Amino acid sequence: MTESDEHWNQVYDRKGPTGVSWFQPHLGLSLAIIRQLGLPKRARIIDVGGGASTLVDDLLDEGFTDVTVLDLSERALAESRARLGGRASSVHWIVGDVTTVELDAGSYELWHDRAVFHFLTEAAARAKYVHNALRALVPGGHIIVATFALEGPERCSGLEVVRYDADGLHAEFGAPFEKIRSLTESHQTPWGSEQEFVYCYCRRV
């Protein structure tokens, strides 16, 4: 287990799945974007840093049949598996670091990340992330990345973050990703404070 793995396992042990700052009962904005894409129900989808998020539940409810959840924290993934019960066996679970995990080329039609990319404070880590996303997505595939906006917090779960506006976030991914749309969200934490998120939706060229 790496230092990062242990950090996130401790976060979930201490706060539980509904006590982390980014918790939402349902990822409404992400779901709205995904519905607008009109993907076939057999589309291969990966939720990066999905952890204990309920996005996987909602995707299964929507009829999607090929969903992968990747997260550093085994503890967080265990929460999702327990919540899903028998449906957990229909999901692909990966414990790993998105900057180093080996994903097959052309594995996914949709890559989703809410609140992972902003933790990558080193340019080299961000470059590895982008490389993996580019490799794992099919040409014409979709990517949704949400990070703290410029007005968002400077730290989260004891770690520094990088904040973005839509243009700055897209610039990290560059020309291989055509920006289609950007949105902002004012997220309310479980303890009532506000966090500003920016969503950037792109298509892999």
Can you give me a brief rundown of this structure?
The protein is α/β, with parallel strands linked by helices. It has helices at 3-15, 28-37, 55-61, 74-84, 123-136, 166-173; strands at residues 44-48, 66-71, 92-95, 108-114, 137-148, 155-156, 159-160, 177-188, 194-204.
What's the level 1 CATH class? Alpha Beta
Task: Describe the strand arrangement of the main beta sheet, using strand numbers.
Answer: 3-2-1-4-5-9-8
Give the proportion of residues in helices.
25-40%
How far apart the termini lie comes to 36 Å
CATH topology: Rossmann fold
Q: Determine the strand fraction and express it as a percent band.
A: 25-35%
Number of helices: 6
Global shape = globular
Radius of gyration: 16 Å
Q: Looking at this structure, what is the CATH superfamily? A: Vaccinia Virus protein VP39
Describe this structure in words.
The chain has 205 residues and is of the alpha/beta class. It has a single domain (3-17, 27-175), classed as Vaccinia Virus protein VP39 (Rossmann fold, 3-Layer(aba) Sandwich), CATH 3.40.50.150. It is built from six helices and nine strands; from the N terminus they run H-H-E-H-E-H-E-E-H-E-E-E-H-E-E. It has helices spanning 3-15, 28-37, 55-61, 74-84, 123-136, 166-173; strands spanning 44-48, 66-71, 92-95, 108-114, 137-148, 155-156, 159-160, 177-188, 194-204. A hairpin with a 5-residue loop joins strand 8 and strand 9 (194-204). The radius of gyration is 16 Å and the shape is globular. The N and C termini lie far apart (36 Å). The model has no long low-confidence stretch (mean pLDDT 94).
